[in-house]
């Protein structure tokens, strides 16, 4: 196993050294990423300056929801988000070099970068999570503690699968980055707010097609003891691992089909 992982460790180590070589630039990137998280938080606070409840959540519940979605998305974006550069690899023929190496193409693509600057955004979400947990009254049990701990993990896993799904689509669209972003960054935006505020078709879309609701909203309902709206009951919050397994199955099948469809850049 160690021998199999050695090439990936070497790739990641070289990327980490490159990012940390210029400490001041890296620090500025961290601050910039944190600034994005603060702006997203400010948007939630501005909304609740005019209302007291959004969906079935008050400000404390909305902050808990925001933090779960923020940790999950920023972590996935840090580890896997750079796969959205696939269209450039397709246009320039760089992907052909990946195909020549005796390693899985997707694994090479994922380990080709690790965007540590995203940690700034993650840090903001973690701070919000600590504050939100102290603001909410939760009847803690071992099951709820496990749910609170694992929700950010499965949130990241689901968002990572969405990035891979979006990358797989590029084999057919090539210039379909904006279309793919509607499901990755759009999924993050949808996950940051109660799914119950959407119309029923959109609620079904972001629960059973793009499983954004499983990343934060449904587990939040379970933790706070809410029942949830029609079609998205709170009990589904326990099924985030199932949603993660399902979307990763779709992602890997789509990636495999796309890679088989790819005929090279003619270089």
TrEMBL record:
Keywords: Membrane, Transmembrane, Transmembrane helix. It comes from the Bacteria. The chain crosses the membrane at residues 30-53, 59-80, 123-147, 153-174, 204-224, 236-255. The keyword Cytoplasm does not apply. The keyword Transmembrane helix applies. Pfam families: ABC2_membrane_6 (PF06182). This is ABC transporter permease. It comes from Occultella glacieicola.
